[in-house]
Design brief:
By secondary structure, this protein is of the alpha/beta class. It has 3 domains: 1-99 and 199-218, 3-Layer(aba) Sandwich (D-Maltodextrin-Binding Protein, domain 2); 105-184, 3-Layer(aba) Sandwich (D-Maltodextrin-Binding Protein, domain 2); 219-296, Porphobilinogen deaminase, C-terminal domain (Double Stranded RNA Binding Domain), CATH 3.30.160.40. Helices cover 29% and strands 24% of the residues. A 5-stranded mixed sheet has the order 2-1-3-10-4, sandwiched between helices. Strands 7-6-8-5-9 form a 5-stranded mixed sheet, sandwiched between helices. A 3-stranded antiparallel sheet has the order 11-12-13, sandwiched between helices. Strand 11 (244-251) and strand 12 form a beta hairpin. Helix 8 runs parallel beside helix 9. The longest helix is centred in the last third of the chain and has 16 residues, at 220-235. Mean pLDDT is 90; it is low at 52-57.
Length: 296
C-alpha cells in the first residue's frame, strides 16, 4: 500500500498558501496515495502580543513544525525558509526548496505615496532589527515602531493608522495577491533581505521515504543561494533576530555574487556594514565564511 504523506504547516493564510504550493507540485506522482496538510501552532503564533525585542532565541515559527516530524505526526514540514533556525534538529534537513520568489523587502505606505518622500519622523512599522537598522541608515529621520502579526494583520494595522508605512517581504504579498502598491527596496543600497527570504523550504527526516519523494522537486539554484546565505548566518552565530541581510545570486550559472549588510553594534543604523563579494559556485560555502569574517 502506498503511504500517505502529511505536511505540517502554520495556520496563517500565507503559510497555508505556501503549503498548497508544495502539495501542488507533489500531486500526481505515483509514490503516494494521499497528500494532506496538518495545521500546527507555532510558539510565535501562540504569543501574538509578545514584542519582537522579547523574542529571544530561534525557532519561534519553526520548532513546533519540527516537533511534528520528530513525533511522527507529519512526514514533512513546510517553512518560510527565512524562519528556519541556523541549525536544524538532529536527523532533519531541507529536502527541497521551491523556486524562489522575489526575495526583496517592500514598503507599503498608508496613502500610497512614495516611501522615500515620507516626512521626517514618519512612523514605519517593522518587527525586524535587520529592516530597522538598514532603513535607519538610509533615513535616520524616520521613527521605527514595532509590529507583530502575519501579513494581513500588518496591513490591517497600517489601514487603522498604527503607522504611516509598513515593511514586509514582497514574496508574501505576491503569494497573497496583495502586492499592488508595494514599493520594493533596493537590496544593494537600501535593505538587503533576510537569509533565504522569498524561498519555501520543505523539511523532512533524512533518508525517509518522504525525503526521497520530496527531493525530486528541489530547485538547485534556489538551494545554492539559500544555503550560502544561511551559512553566513550560521558563521555569525545568530538567528532570525540578528540584524543581518544577505543575498546570494548566481552569475552566468557558474559564479555566486554575495551581498550582505550587518549591524554589529547597538545603535539603530549606526555602524552598518555592507559588503559584496563574488566567487565560483563550487566555493559558495567558503565565500560565505569569508563574508562572515568580513562583517564581524
Amino acid at each position: 500500500m502506498r503511504p500517505a504523506i502529511r505536511a505540517a504547516t502554520r495556520g496563517s493564510v500565507l503559510a497555508r498558501r505556501q503549503t498548497e504550493l508544495v502539495l501542488a507540485r507533489l500531486r500526481g506522482r505515483e509514490f503516494v496515495a494521499e497528500l494532506t496538510a496538518v495545521e500546527v501552532q507555532a510558539a510565535g503564533d501562540l504569543a501574538p502580543d509578545t514584542l519582537p525585542e522579547a523574542m529571544a532565541g530561534e525557532g519561534w515559527f519553526s520548532s513546533a513544525l519540527e516537533r511534528s516530524l520528530a513525533t511522527g505526526d507529519a512526514e514533512l514540514a513546510v517553512h518560510s525558509a527565512k524562519d528556519l533556525p541556523s541549525r536544524l534538529a538532529a536527523g532533519m534537513g531541507v529536502a527541497a526548496y521551491l523556486p524562489r520568489a522575489d526575495p526583496r523587502d517592500a514598503v507599503v505606505t498608508a496613502d500610497g505615496a512614495p516611501w522615500r518622500r515620507l516626512p521626517s519622523r514618519a512612523r514605519v512599522a517593522t518587527g525586524s532589527p535587520r529592516r530597522a537598522a538598514q532603513l535607519m541608515s538610509v533615513r535616520p529621520d524616520l521613527s521605527i515602531v514595532p509590529i507583530r502579526g502575519n501579513v494581513d494583520t500588518r496591513l490591517e494595522r497600517l489601514a487603522e493608522g498604527a503607522a504611516d508605512a509598513v515593511v514586509v517581504a514582497l514574496a508574501g504579498l505576491e503569494r497573497l495577491g496583495r502586492a499592488a502598491g508595494a514599493q520594493p527596496l533596493d537590496p544593494y543600497r537600501e535593505c538587503t533581505p533576510a537569509p533565504a527570504q522569498g524561498a519555501i523550504a520543505v523539511e523532512a527526516r533524512r533518508g525517509s521515504d518522504a525525503w526521497v519523494f520530496v527531493e525530486s522537486i528541489d530547485d538547485p539554484a534556489t538551494r545554492l543561494c539559500c544555503e550560502t546565505e544561511r551559512a553566513v548566518l550560521a558563521h555569525l552565530g545568530g538567528g532570525c533576530r540578528l540584524p543581518l541581510g544577505v543575498l546570494a545570486e548566481t552569475v552566468a550559472g557558474e559564479r555566486v555574487r554575495l551581498t550582505a549588510a550587518f549591524l554589529p553594534g547597538s545603535g539603530p543604523g549606526v555602524g552598518l556594514r555592507r559588503r559584496t563579494s563574488e566567487g565560483p559556485a563550487g566555493e559558495a560555502l567558503q565565500l560565505a565564511a569569508e563574508m562572515a569574517r568580513a562583517l564581524r
